[in-house]
Amino acid sequence: MLNSTDPQDVFSKQVPKNLTANIVYFIISLASGLFLVPYFINSLGVASYAMIPLATSFTSYVNLITVSLNTSVSRPITIELQKEEFKKANVTFNTALFGTLGIILLMLPIVLLLSYYSPSFFEVPSNQENATRLLFLGVIIAFLLRAWSSNFGVSIFAYNRLDILNIINAINILVQVSLIILFFKLDSPNLAYIGLAYLIAAIVAFVLTVFFSHRINPHFKINIKDFRRSKANEILEMGGWVIITQIGSLLFLQIDLIVVNKLFGTLAGGEYSIAFMWSSVLRTIASVLISILTPVILTYYIKGKIEELINLAKSAIKLTGFALALPIGFICGFAPQLLSLWVGPEFVKISPLILIMLSHLVINLPVMLLFDINIAYNKVRTPGIVTFWMGVGNFLLELTLPFVTGWGYYGVAVAGAIVLTLNNAIFIPWYTTKILGIPRTTFVSSIFSGALAAFIIAGSCRLINFLVPVSGLGALVISGIVVTIAYMVSIWVFTKENIERQIIMSMIPSTIRYRL
After folding, report:
1. Whole-number average pLDDT of the chain
2. Least confident of 27-31, 169-173, 291-295, 355-359
3. d(CA 493, CA 501)
4. Selection from 152, 170, 150, 147 nearest residue 215 by Cα
5. What element of type H or E holds 44?
C-alpha cells in the first residue's frame, strides 16, 4: 500500500521522515567530503587527488543513458502504482530492468577502453598510470551497478519512502570511507584502493536496494517475459529527450574539471577540485530538499490539483533558496578562513574562485524543482534541446574565455556561471510557466528571494570578520552559530502567515510540531 493517497497526508506523515533521512544523508556526505579532501591531499598529493573527482565526474558521462531511462521510468511506475495497476507496473519495471541491463552490458567494452586509456587522456602523475586505470574502472563499474539497482529503487520512490533511499545512500558513503581508510592503513595510499572501495560499497548498496524494494513493494516480480518492446519504445521516447537534457547538464556541471585539467594541468585541476567540492555539496543540499517534494508533485499532477501544484512549486523554490542562502553566504563570507583551517593557508588564494563558483547557485539550484513539473507533463523535448545547446555553448565559452580575458581557470568558473544562469534562472522558469499557462513572472520573486538572503548573510560574515577578526576554529564556529540563529529567526518571522510556514511545519515531526 502507498504511504498515502492524498498529498496533504504525504506532507503530514511521510515528509518529516524523508526530511530527517535526507538531513542525515547530507551530514554524512558533507562530513565525508570535508574529511576526505585533506586526507587525500596529505596522503596522495594535490596532483594525484585531482584524479579522484575526475573519475567520479567521468562516471556521469558513462552513466548518462541509464540514469536518464530511470528518470523516465519513475513517472509511469508512480502513476501505475498509485492507481494500483500492478500488472502494468510490473511490465514497466521488467522492461526497464532488462533494457537497462542490456545497455550496461553494451557499455562495458567502452568502460574498459575509457579506464585503460585514462592515463593517456589526462595528465597523470608519474608511476600512477595503472593505479589511475583501476581507479576509473572501479568507480565507473560501481556507478553502473548503482544505476541498474535504481530500477529497484523506483518502487521505493513511488511509495514515497525516500527515507529508505537516503539511508542506503548514507550506508554507501560510510562503506566507501571506511574501506578507503582501512586499505590505506593496511597497505599504503593508492588510487586503486579508492576504486575498489567504491565497487564494494556499490555492491552493498545494490543488495540493500533489492531487499527493501521487495519488502515495500512485493507486487514486482523479476520476469524477462514481461519485457515489452512497445513499452521500451515508450520509455525511450521520453528517455531520449531526458538523455539530451542530461548531456547538456553535464556540459554545465562536470565538463569544467576536464577542461581545467587539460588546459592548466593536474596541479590547477587539484586546486579547482577543492572549490568544486563545495559546489557539489550545495548541489547535494538542493537535491535533498527537492527530492522530498518530487513524489508530491507527481501526486498533485495525477489528481489534477494544478493550482496546488503551482503554489507548492513557488513556495518550495523560495524555501530551497532560503535554505541554500545560509551555507552559500557563510562559505562566501568566510572563504579565506574556511580554506585555511580546512586544507591549509596555501589554498587561501582560491577564495575568489569559491565566490565565483558558489554565488550563482542560490538562484540556479532551487529551480531544478521545475524540471519535475516538465517530467510530470511529459514536456521534456524543448528543455532537452535548449539545455543541450546551452551546454555546448558553455563548453566552448570555457575553452575561450580563460585565454581571451587572461583569467586562467577563473575564466572557466565564470563561463559556467553565466551560461547556467541563462538556462536555469531564465529559460526553465519561463518554459514551465508556458506549460502551466500562467504569467511568465510567476516564479521570479521566489527565485530571487534566496539571492537577497545570501547577499545579506555574506555581507554580515564579512562585517563580523572586520569587527572581530576570525582566525581559529572556535571563533568560526561561534560566528556560524550566531549567524544561523539570527537568520533562522528572521526567516521564521518573514514567513509568518505564509504557505511557506505551513510547509516548514509539515516537515517537522508531529511530536515536535504540536509543542511548537
Report:
1. 80
2. 291-295
3. 9
4. 152
5. helix 15-44
